[in-house]
Amino acid sequence: MKRFTSTITFFGSILTASVISARADFAAAQRAYSDGDYATAIREYKLDGSASAHYALGLMYAEGKGARQRNSREAMKWYRLAAEQGYAKAQYALGLMYAIGEEVPANKKEAAKWYRKAAEQGHVTAEYNLATMYDKGVGVTQDEKAATKWYLKAAEQGHSAAQFNLAQIYEKGAGEGETDKKESGQWYLKAAENGYARAQFRIAQMYDKGESVPQDKKEAVKWYRRAAEQKHAKAQFMVGLLYDKGEGVPQDKKEAAKWYRKAAEQGVAEAQFNLGLMYYNGSGVKQNRTEAAKWFRKAADQGDGDAQFNLGHLYDQGEGVRQDWKVAAKWFRKSADQGFDQAQLKLGLMYFRGQGVKQNKREAFKWLGKAAEQGSDEAIKTLEILGMHMPLKGAR
């Protein structure tokens, strides 16, 4: 019995020494990494052999540290070793590689599997990614209840995007569930206070329109501005609009033009149109019809009917562009096709006169009639002068 006991003690001392040596290897690897001695770091991490060391090796190969270039295949090998030992960060990293198809064919189902393993250990980004997969039905069967569960777990850890998505679920009502505006608002506010621009914009909308909160234009401006300062394009447009109208802030056309420009440069059609209008009228900026045409065109190319009409007008009159009735007719038609009565009127007159288009009385009366049906007094008077009268609408 005595000999047996001494044998246990002997092996116990070997095991303890081994653990101390392993930790020494890990510490040595970390020091070498900090010093930029990546070759030594790799060697020491491999000697350590722990899950955290395997993960660290995966990171180094993924970042190209200790090699001439990134080596995703080697990174995946080490991530997998760590992941199979239950290391959450490695499980998440492996899931991400399967999700994006790095060094392996994209496999959303496999990605979900590894995200779940990491999420079950409280890895916040894995919780969020798994939630989005359930939300969209990617790699798993779509399940709003499961999505809500994982969004909530991530949200409770302060994940801003999860807080925002959770707020959307409560606002719209998951599946056949009832909406919960109060809960929704609380999560939007948490995300907004965490600096999440989309949540800041939504909170601003709520104050702007009085949705679930008392209408407060000043509070709306505050949150729109916070989102706008993070380059949220629609928030930039809204800040410009409120300065333009003087709602929640003193009216300031120059400030309005500044914010419209920021949004316009990001492709917001409404901002491009409003900026074009400011250049046309010389409001908040120096009058410049050429610049007006430039911004109207950008909005018109995105299908903005008002901008299409205004651009047609500039070509019709030769303001800021070379007069070209053919081009004017093209833009009037685009606007008219969207139901804009002024464009229908102008297009009808152009067909009647043969201006920019081949003269066609039937087409002229067609477009004038469309404008008149929408209540355009000018179109009605024009038809009367031409001896055409709008028929009375039938009984309902």
What does this structure look like?
- With 396 residues, the protein is mainly alpha-helical.
- The protein has a domain at 197-297: Serine Threonine Protein Phosphatase 5, Tetratricopeptide repeat, CATH 1.25.40.
- 72% of the residues lie in helices and 0% in strands.
- The protein has 21 helices and no strands.
- Helix 9 (160-172) packs antiparallel against helix 10 (181-193) and helix 11 (197-209) packs antiparallel against helix 12.
Work out the helicity level. over 70%
CATH architecture of one domain: Alpha Horseshoe
Describe the sheet with the most strands: none
CATH fold label of one domain: Serine Threonine Protein Phosphatase 5, Tetratricopeptide repeat
The CATH homologous superfamily name of one domain equals Tetratricopeptide repeat domain
Overall mean pLDDT stands at 91
Unreliable stretches (pLDDT < 50, length at least 5) are 1-22, 391-396
Tell how many strands the DSSP assignment holds.
0
**What's the level 1 CATH class of one domain?**
Mainly Alpha
Structural class: mainly alpha
Succession of helices and strands? HHHHHHHHHHHHHHHHHHHHH
Cα-based radius of gyration, to the nearest Å: 33 Å
Could you tell me the strand content as a percent range? under 5%
Intertermini distance: 107 Å
Number of helices: 21
- Net shape: elongated
Feature tags:
396 residues; mainly alpha; disordered C terminus
Produce a short descriptive summary.
The chain is an all-alpha fold and 396 residues long. It has 21 helices and no strands.
Strand-helix topology:
Layout: H1 2-34, H2 38-48, H3 51-63, H4 72-83, H5 88-100, H6 108-119, H7 124-136, H8 144-156, H9 160-172, H10 181-193, H11 197-209, H12 217-228, H13 233-245, H14 253-265, H15 269-281, H16 289-301, H17 305-317, H18 325-337, H19 341-353, H20 361-373, H21 377-385
